[in-house]
Design brief:
Layout (H helix, E strand, L loop, with lengths): L7 H15 L13 H8 L10 H12 L21 H12 L7 H22 L6 E5 L2 H19 L9 E5 L4 H9 L3 E5 L7 H9 L3 H6 E7 L11 H11 L2 E6 L23 E4 L1 H4 L7 E5 L2 H8 L33 H10 L1 H23 L4 E3 L7 E6 L4 H13 L7 E6 L2 E9 L7 H9 L3
Parallel strand pairs: 2-3, 2-4, 4-5, 5-6
Antiparallel strand pairs: 1-7, 6-7, 8-9, 9-11, 10-11
The structure holds pyridoxal-5'-phosphate (PLP).
The site of pyridoxal-5'-phosphate (PLP) has 14 residues, from helix 6.
């Protein structure tokens, strides 16, 4: 199967050059999805008994399928949490793939894992966690949150025999990311939500815990604070939450999947005060650390606890316990066994550019949010819902109904001009539909923002 009927290496390089040049370019339209039936009609049968040949498959990809994806790095893609991988990281992602490194065990992937650990050391240094704290790269924030929650739960169960027969309970706020609830479901853990989409404060958390009936209080083992809510960029009162967790003997997890990148930015790093008290932290390099998909990270104050929860045993794995095979085994600290060394592109990009460039790029995202905020304040038909936070801006178009926001989103996407989607903001007891920007790409310009706002006329 190594035989290829055309010079696939050259073709790959052509596509690669196209993709690399397209990164962050506004000359290209934002792609849009086609229906499955439309795509099928365009490409026909691709999986056949004898194969359709590399050239044919490649051309179908280039002509039809590649165009049906939305480049998340487009400077006018300001929906969800966009991404903006560096060219260095994208190139090294190719090298990572081509190297077929098994990234579970040092014995097999020492070179790759060494590089991942270098990058991880920098990320850990941003958190201020004490010596001994360390982490691993995961497929994303969801897997990182699951790995952390399971570690916390197993630790809690190890503390008291009775806890082994109880269903665990965690507290977070309604500003928390959906993956917290989803992962608690996977781990069969109950979630109690503090009813605020705004900053989770110490007092509200304390009151919630004090109001718990005794049976529930016994099942409570962790609090999840958010370090930059996905919807609005709000950083919870991490210091306050940390003090309650310490007093109540609870595991303190900080989900900074989106906001964690901002730890590098001097202008906002004070908002994260208290994160150094966390027992575990989630940060997604594929969000605000300019890595390609997929790359999340989970960091532990005491990695040994993660190892107790996650290391896999099996007779054919015994060799990895051997002295000769010893080293850092990423599989021990999260839910996956076989894994790609997905931190490698980040390492290469950090090594190439240096950490100062990362700081500048993140600061630009924060600055763009401030610029957008000022622009919104200066226009008659739009207004801020709340001040910009990190790189998120929530604003309303005065007089618009929910369906107006949706229609506007589709219209701009249809034109290949921009992707900006509506969201909801909880105001008292009502949810208001509003518009939202999330800036990641430092190449987004003021003109881009202006043009998007003007399209709301
Ligand atoms: C995006 C996000 C997640 C989920 O991360 P994935 O990488 O998509 O799995 C979790 N928490 C927060 C706060 C996020 O912004």
């Amino acid at each position: 199967m190594h035989k290829i009927d055309i010079d696939l290496v050259d073709m790959t390089m052509d596509v690669m050059k196209y993709v690399i040049n397209r990164l962050s370019s506004t000359k290209h339209k934002i792609g849009k999805p086609k229906k499955e039936a439309e795509l099928k009609a365009l490409v026909g049968e691709t999986i056949t008994k004898n194969g359709i040949g590399g050239e044919q498959a490649f051309n179908l990809w280039k002509e039809h399928l590649a165009k049906s994806n939305v480049p998340i790095d487009h400077p006018r893609h300001l929906a969800f949490v966009p991404a903006s991988p560096t060219r260095a990281a994208v190139m090294f992602d190719l090298v990572t793939s081509a190297s077929s490194i098994h990234g579970a065990y040092w014995m097999e992937g020492a070179g790759g894992i060494f590089c991942e650990n270098e990058a991880m050391r920098w990320i850990v240094s941003l958190t201020g966690l004490p010596n001994g704290a360390f982490g691993v790269f995961t497929s994303g924030g969801t897997a990182a949150n699951l790995s952390a929650i399971v570690t916390a739960r197993e630790y809690w169960r190890s503390l008291k025999q009775q806890n082994n027969f109880e269903k665990g309970l965690i507290i977070t706020s309604i500003g928390a990311h959906s993956s917290i609830k989803a992962m608690a479901k996977v781990a069969d853990i109950d979630v109690l939500l503090v009813d605020t989409e705004d900053r989770l404060e110490k007092d509200a958390l304390e009151a919630t815990i004090n109001n718990l009936p005794i049976q529930k209080r016994q099942r409570l083992f962790a609090v999840v604070a958010t370090g930059g809510t996905t919807n609005a960029g709000i950083v919870d009162d991490l210091n306050g939450v940390a003090s309650i967790c310490e007093k109540e003997n609870l595991w303190f997890h900080v989900d900074a999947a989106y906001g964690g990148g901002a730890l590098v930015a001097d202008s906002v790093s004070h908002l994260f005060k208290g994160i150094a008290h966390a027992d575990s932290i989630t940060i997604d390099p594929h969000k605000w650390m300019f890595s390609p998909y997929d790359c999340g990270a989970v960091i532990y104050r005491n990695p040994e606890l993660a190892k107790k929860a996650h290391s896999q045993q099996g007779s054919y794995l015994d060799i990895f316990e051997d002295e000769g095979a010893h080293g850092f085994n990423p599989t021990d600290y999260q839910i996956q066994l076989t894994r790609r060394v997905r931190g490698l592109p980040l390492w290469f990009s950090l090594a190439t550019h240096g950490t100062e460039r990362y700081k500048e790029a993140v600061e630009r995202g924060i600055e763009l949010a401030q610029i957008a905020g000022k622009m919104i304040e200066g226009k008659p038909n739009v207004e801020l819902v709340r001040p910009p936070s990190l790189s998120c801006v929530l604003y309303r178009r005065i007089g618009w109904e929910p369906k107006d926001y949706t229609n506007w989103t589709y219209k701009n996407h249809e034109k290949g001009f921009a992707l900006v989607t509506p969201t909801k903001w909880k105001n008292g007891n009502t949810f208001e539909t509003v518009s939202r920007f999330c800036f990641i790409n430092p190449d987004t310009t003021e003109k881009d923002i202006e043009a998007i706002l003007d399209s709301m006329d």
